[in-house]
Amino acid sequence: MDRQHDQVLVVTPGDRRPGPGTPGMDRQEAFATEGTWSGFVRTEAGMVSAWHHHGAYESVIYVLTGALKMEFGPDGSHTVDAGPGDFIYVPKGAVHRESNPTGVPADIIVVRAGSGQSTFNVGGPAAG
């Protein structure tokens, strides 16, 4: 795809590419530039992802369908729950994992701002 900065571009579902991998999540990249990453993510019913963080990127997640539970903080002791229409903000470097506690797939849109590698899979958050 031509990614010149002087053009408005459209990425259709068929144009999306596999995004950075984290076990338990299907990330599909729409756009990746020097300062942003955006894409679509599907989490299957009952899925729990691996622990990961997004380095120097801060992320905003919008829940389209289903539900999203996110664990973070010391030993993963904090959680947030979100449903359709909810936004979630994830700061730079925050180690977290996502799950879908429902019986149906969940679809989310993710937009990240930052630089460098956008996904790091890790063993888990540090103890508090």
TrEMBL record:
Region (Disordered) location: 1-28
Pfam family of the protein (one): Cupin_2
InterPro entries recorded: Bacilysin_H2HPP_isomerase (IPR052535), Cupin_2 (IPR013096), RmlC-like_jellyroll (IPR014710), RmlC_Cupin_sf (IPR011051)
Residues in Cupin type-2 domain copies: 41-111
Superkingdom of origin organism: Bacteria
Record protein name field: Cupin domain-containing protein
Organism from which the protein derives: Streptomyces luteolifulvus
